[in-house]
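Assemble and predict.
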Amino acid sequence: MSAEKPEEKAPAAPELSPLLEKVLARLGDRVLAHRTARGDDRIHVARERILEVVRILRDDPELNFDLLLDVTAIDYFGQPDDFETKLQVWDRNRATMRRLPQRRHELALPPRGSEPRFAVVYHLTSTRLAHRLRIKCRVPEDDPKLASVTPVWPAANWLERETWDLYGIVFDGHPDLRRIYLYEEFVGHPLRKDYAKHGEQPIQEYVGPGAKEPRRPH
Amino acid sequence: MLDPERKNPAVPIEGNPAAALEELHTPPMRLQFGPSHPATHGTVKITLDLEGEQVVWSDVEVGYLHRGFEKECETGYYYQNIPYTDRLNYSSPILNNTGYCMAVEKLFGIATPERCNYIRVIGCELSRMADHMLCIGASAMELAAFTPMLYLIEGRELILDMVDSLCGARVTTNFVRIGGVSADMPANFADFARPRLDRALKLFEDADKLLTENPVFRQRMEGTGYLSREDLVAWGVTGPMLRAGGEPYDVRKVHPYLVYGELDFDVPVGEHSDNFDRYLVRLEEFRQSRRLILQCLEGIPDGPVDADDPRVRWPGKGRVFNRMEELIDQFKLVTEGGMPPAGEVYHAVEAANGELGFYIVSDGTGKPWKCRCRAPSFSNMSPLSKMITGGQLADVVPTFGMINMIGGECDR
């Protein structure tokens, strides 16, 4: 997987936040990139090493990230994390306003970038030390797979099911990876950017266990 | 060999107990609890396998109220998404408005004026009081205690009157704006609020007396729905449920926002981590919220309620109708939205049920690239199956009631 390095293009930010100093000292080269913006600290990790990284973050007494707040994904469409390329190539609003009225709800999509398409985002906090951290992992479109963090925090169970449901990202090792909001027969993953906002589909007939048999004629 | 005197010979008393149980054994009964059940205030389906009255397996299914909040937000301008947040937790909407608007302000880098922060705290705490009243009242009603519910709903009406006086709406408030609030509070708001707060507290105390020493209520609540402190943290539970387990994690104290850092309030903490402690924590939080509001009414400074930031605030009709530049400015703001710099933020507030976080990713245009809501109800619901499995069927109702799952927020 190609590593994203947003701080290469960004202006140099030499001073590290105290939390990132501790995290970088503990994780070393497992961190591909890091950034502190608007008071939030974030690190980028290769998806193969996510389980290893979160175990360290939870078990290290100085970091003690014991509470998993959130797991979600972002469909970046291959764009870099902070959309540096936006001004040169694409003005989303202008494209939207020239649409025909009946298509105004459709998204004007950016051109596909060269980065892996999705990013899976974890928000962690510590109940004892009161700091927050965001972890991002890029996941490519053709193989949207990632190790589940359910063994570390059972809280990830429903959150990863939701991410699978809405983005179609598969979490390896999840005990029960079913859809959570939509029904099993639903086709597609609605929070992907190429799923149209009114991409309605007829309710599919339920065929699972306990399905009603067709009514016999009298 | 069974005791012949017992009418329901469920417990063998002599001979080989295992063999007798084997003889009596019937397959577990599958019970569908919900999606629309009188004892669940919210649409959720719980599938239970029962051995007698004991739950041996359970599965919780949410998503009946899924409306595509996040998809909807991606196609609206930042200011257009505020009304959607009302519908997340419809029993405490101002808390949701505040959470969303503060996340957007963090994205823009806007600091709101002091008076606005005080008004937001008043709105938030009123919402929290209303939410706790509804939670306790509805849970008590599900345990067949109907009278406290009436007391609490009357008290909630008084609080909704105050919300009405603040923003002109009772439930779908749409009160907080990016960079401010929709209007300054009425000049006589303090005089309007104080007697109503006293009356609401009186009603609340009455309900407290009816419930807390009630033996039936205590037997249903004490010891049920237990989850250890370690499990609560590992399952991502926040809010009154986590604090009832002995963990004093409250976003208002840990990451103070608005003016919570300057106000004086306590965070109640339970020790038994059962439903009764969750109820007691909510009782105390109600009183602390009232204390916060009284402090705000006392200390609120004069001044503007809007950050005068042209990127998000409209110029005002007087100037729009008379000046060309302001007309253009308003036109651009309405049709293209305010445009924050590209980037991402996470901002959390302490909602009535736990940490309510908004994670917004901006691509530099007027619409969010992603607007994620970290809903407390969703994370608090996920260990429900663990909490009810192994207990009695009757314990499902108080446990579910004390989680206080709000469908709009859990299913988004």
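The first strand of chain A starts at residue 31 and ends at 37.
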